[in-house]
Design brief:
heterodimer, A: 143 residues, Heat Shock Protein 90, 5-stranded antiparallel sheet, 5 helices, 5 strands, globular, B: 112 residues, binds adenosine-5'-triphosphate, binds magnesium ion
């Protein structure tokens, strides 16, 4: 049944912090309608939301492609932001370059990337300085 | 704990969900750090926060949080309340600061 794939695509506006999370919220709604189990929805929602917020606060927006099959949910978030110089360092809990304005909103604790790793079954992150970052999140649906 | 007890203990004003006073919450979390809420909160409880922005509701939505208490007299604006309405989330505001609001609920039996 692998051919049954539902695709969703989003443009994420980098200048509008207020609307960061709209795509994740929509995906959550779609998964609920599809009858996906709450634990799986939670894993997707939290990891995607963290990556979506990152895309807005660190990379001025980008695109998100979600594909849903009966076996897995895959979310690919691609931006043309500044890139990440040292991915190992960025993955460390507590590492953050978020500015004060972001901290005042309750973000910028350096917990996002580690949290994605925790909730995703597979997380791949590739980045090139000056070009952008791509985060791939895969959550498997137990058969 | 019923929402109406939360309301009474904190002398809170309900800004959304006045028809849901009989709803139960089983856990609570007090935090001004959405990063922490996303990383540690278990599920479907109550969120108390001194932050006042749209991302509080979005974060709560991701975590399946049922109700948000804005502490220290923070009054969320219409946009925030409207989003909470769409997400069917209970919203209230109290003059209590975060520490004492959490303390009162904890002492009254709402643990974790
Ligand atoms: N899409 C991205 N583009 C450029 N840099 C990024 C991107 N995502 C993450 N980073 C870098 O990695 C750091 C760590 O990211 P992480 O999500 O763990 O923490 P944070 O976003 O700073 O804070 P939090 O997620 O707790 O709100 C960021 O501070 C930033 O320097
Ligand atoms: Mg982050």
């Amino acid at each position: 049944m692998t051919d049954e794939i539902l695709s969703l695509n989003y443009q994420v506006n980098g200048s509008d912090l207020q609307s960061a999370g709209v795509a994740s919220s929509d995906v959550k709604k779609v998964l609920r309608k599809l009858g996906v189990s709450p634990e799986i929805i939670r894993k997707v929602a939290i990891s995607m939301y963290e990556a979506e917020i990152n895309m807005v606060i660190h990379a001025n927006g980008g695109t998100i492609d979600v594909s849903i099959s009966p076996e897995q949910i895959k979310v690919v978030l691609a931006d043309n932001g500044p890139g990440i110089a040292n991915i190992d360092l960025a993955m460390k809990e507590g590492y953050s370059t978020a500015p004060q304005t972001i901290r005042e909103m309750g973000f910028g604790a350096g917990m996002g990337l580690p949290n994605i790793k925790k909730y995703a079954d597979i997380m791949n992150i590739t980045s090139e300085l000056g070009k952008g970052t791509t985060v791939e999140i895969i959550v498997n649906i137990p058969q | 704990m019923k929402i109406k007890e939360v309301k009474e203990l904190l002398n809170a004003e309900i800004l959304n969900g006045i028809d849901q006073l009989e709803e139960e919450v089983y856990s609570a979390c007090g935090s001004d750090l959405m990063s922490d809420v996303l990383a540690f909160v278990k599920h479907q409880g109550l969120l108390l926060t001194g932050l006042n922005n749209l991302q509080v509701v979005r974060t709560a939505d991701m975590m399946d949080i049922r109700a948000i208490v804005f502490v220290r007299g923070k009054k969320p604006d219409e946009e925030i309340i409207n989003l909470a309405k769409r997400k069917d989330m209970i919203v209230m505001t109290t003059e209590e600061p975060l520490y004492s609001a959490c303390g009162k609920l904890y002492s009254a039996g709402l643990k974790k």
